[in-house]
Structures are given as structure tokens and as C-alpha cells.
Amino acid sequence: MRQSFLRFVRTLHITRVLVRYRLDEVIYFLPLLKPYQAILRLSPMSLLGPRPQGTFAERLREALETLGPTFIKLGQMLSTRRDLLPEHITQELAKLQDAVPPFPSQIARQIIETALNAPLNTLFSRFEEQPAAAASIAQVHFGQLLDGREVAIKVRRPGLQRVIEQDLAILALLADLAERYSQEGRRLRVRAVVAEYAKTIQGELDLLREAANASQLRRNFAAEQDLLYVPEIYWDYCAPPVLVMERIYGIPIGQRDTLRKAGIDFDQLSRRAAEIFFRQVFRDAYFHADMHPGNIFIDPRNGSFIAVDFGIMGSLDDASQHYLAENMVAFFRRDYRRVAEAHVEAGWVPPDTNIQDFETAIRAIAEPVFEKPLHEISVANLLLRLFQTTRAFQMQTQPQLLLLQKTLVNVEGIARDFNPALNIWEVATPLLTEWLSRQRGPQGWWSELKRQFPQWGLVLPELPVLLHGILRQAQQGELPLIVRNDDIEGIRRELRHGLRRLTFSVGGTFIMVGLGIIATLEHRLDADLLGLPVWFWLTALPIVLWIGASWTRAVFFRND
Question: What pTM value is reported for the model?
């Protein structure tokens, strides 16, 4: 009851912000929300409040920033979905700032001591009171462990989890309504998108999970630290609201003048950005999904990338990884039919899609792009136009690809910023071709064999006994064949009910006829009927009826 009340209060606050920024005008076009429309129209702020300045897109951005971290990060995610929203809105949402005033360091101290169950001075020899950075989810303090190691201490904002859980519950309700009453909502799989977003932001709240993400990424690039360096996690000092990791020293990637003075090769930097992305996606199927400039530093000693903030990570299953590679390689080869077939095989578009029409539509968007010089071709924009086109072919939204698309936009932007002439296809194609050949060739078979071997080791000892039992049953004619089908089961139920009704009907008819015969013959049971006494018919017919019903049940409904 208390949770419902708090959710109601939060809904009222969201309503107040919508009215304040005059975003309620969008809701007036949704018939489903007519009761909500009436509340908004009668709101005193709607009638008496001042008119906010700015375009609709600007007001939307300001409203999301006012509503807090859940909506800020939702807006940041939507800023990459130019296949769903107009470009002027996505451009404005891209300006969303996650920086907020820091909370008092005394509160940070209390959170650390409570989470790690120890006084601060027994954990750190130095704790800097002034936060180095503050965002909507957490803030960072620098410090030093007792053994002298320099660390960055990330502390989650107090009271944040409750508000975010309320916001996610409200978004889940809206998504459920959208899918229930809107065909477009079902096609876009709004519930799945909201669920994926909820998983992402809940992962950001749990700093212990973020520490595990960083540890995994560090392990993936352990042999390539000159390409991407991931700070070490100090597990003894980590808990859900606290993360302690190695402090890094690097140049923020946005400081171009400083990078130039440090002698960083911009062309190498742009190629490394693209290579890091494609290695994460196609080698590891696990990638840093928040690679905006604020989370990337450059080591001035060797020009390697240094990543921080591992709250948002993306992963791909084998099927998505395979078909994504197939699509990219087929695009580069201008094999548009293969692109269309890959979409159908992956289940991204309905199986009855006309391949010829789909191929023609893909060719129409790709050919104008490929008429440009290769270094001017944007992979992100090409995929964006593909997603826009596939909407006409009822392509369902793939939640696992949303983070990938966002990351690709960020990485390509960074790479092209340092080298506008970068041919990203030149970097991507060898990696993709090599990956596909490994998956299909002997190396891929051998890798799969090694992966499955431990499971086979458990099953193989049981195979002789199982095989012997099957062969013995087959020899004795006892091998059962069981076919399960929902439609067949429905027919069986109908037949069973029909047989029962038939049995009762025939039995009832026999009783009525028998009573009529007895009445007609004036209770003379020894009278003849067709050469046999009446008592014989009254005894034999029920027995025959019972035997017939039992035989039918035994034959057709043996397992019931």
C-alpha cells in the first residue's frame, strides 16, 4: 500500500513537470489517456502558470533533466534512435547533461563506512573531501589505500534507488498500455525495450555489478593493454553502494589541444577507436556501451585508450552477433539479397516477408550511400537508414541492438572527429571477415567441440545403457511413440467430452425406452421381444453399452 501511494505521489510530480514545460500537449493526441488529459487540463499550473520558452525539443530536454536520472538516461538512449524520433528532437536529447551538484562529503563518508562496515581511517590513508566528479547516479572521490595505492572511490547517491524503482514501475505500466492498445507499440516491443532499459539502469545502481563489468572487460583486453586499458578493481573495498578502483592518469579525449601537445597521433587514435569497438562486439560479444567523451581518456605515454564508468555494458547472443556480422559484410559487398535473407533468418522481420521487395528497398537506401567515397560512408547512418526502412516490413525492435547502435554512434563520432577521412570499413572488414571465417571454418568447429566436450563427458557414460534399453523395447514391440501437440490435445478433449455425452444420451434413451417397454407389456418381463424375453434385453443392453464405452475409451483415450 505504501509503495502504491509513493508511486501515486511520483506520478503527480511527473504530471506537474509535464504541465510546467507544456509537454501535456502530446498527451492530448492519445485517446487512451483521456482521463489523464482531463486532470492536466484542470491543473492550476496549466491554467495560470507561465508559458515556458523554447521549442518543444528544448522543453522536452529540460523536463527530462528536471525529472532526474531515470529520465535523463532514457533521453540519452532515445537520442540515438533517429529511426523512431525526428532528428531535431534526437539532436536536442543528445545535449542532456548528467552532471548535477555533488552531495555532502560527510554523507559519502557515512555511506562508505556503513557499506564496508569499518571506519574510514582504517580503510584509506587519505580521502579527498572535494568530489572529483558528480553525476546523477554517483560521485567520485580520490583517495589512497593504507598500502599507498592511489584509488578512485565511487559512491552512490543516497535515496536514489527508491525513486528509480518508482519511475521504472510507471514506465513499465505505460509500456504495457502501449502494447495492449497499440499495434505500433507491439511492433516496437515497448515492454521489452523498457525491460532492457530497466536492467541497464539497475545495473548502474549496483556498483558491485559495475565492478564485475570492469573486471570482465579488463580480462578481455589483458593482452592488449596498449590498445585499451581498464583500471584494476580492488574487491575488498567494493559493495553495492561503493566501488574502489585504481586511479588513472590520462588526458580527456575531448581536450584535443592537450593531446596534440602530448604528441598523440590522431590518425592512429581514430583507427584504435574503431578497432576497439569491433573487437569488443565480434570477438568478445561484450562491449562498453557508454563510450561518450566523458568516459574516455588517453594515456599520454603510448596513446592507448583508458575507459572508466562501466555501469552500462552490452552483450550479444550468438545469433545476433552472427547476423550482425553477416549484414555488415553483405552491405560492404553490396549483396542486398543476403542482407534481406539475414533479416528473415534472424527472425527480425516476419517469415512471410517478400524477399524481392525487401531487397529492392534495401538497395534503394544503400546505393546512394555507396556512391560516396568510402571514407565518407557512415556505418551508424547506414544502419539507421536500414532500421527506418525495415519499419515498413514490420521489423520488431531488437532490444539487444539498442545499446549497440548507441555505442556505434559514439565510437564513429570519436573516430571521425580525429580523422574525418577515416575509412571505417577498411578497419572493420578484415575483423569481420576473420571472425566469420573462424565461426564457419575448422577453427570454429574445433572451438565449439572444445566448448561442448565437458558436457559430453557427463553424458557419454550413460549412452550404452540408454541405447540398450531403447533397442530392447524396440525388439519387444514396447517402444512408445508419444506425440504432443496442443491442437491434437484439444481434439482429444472434445472427443472425450463427446463420448461421455453420447454414453449418457444413449444410456438415458435406453432407460426411457426400457421403461416404455415395461409399461407397454404391463410389467410382464417374461414376454418375448424379437424371440427373446424382455428381461434378457433389459440386462444385455446396458452390459453391451458399458463394454462399448470402455473399449472406445481404452483405444482412443488410453492415457487419460
Answer: 0.68
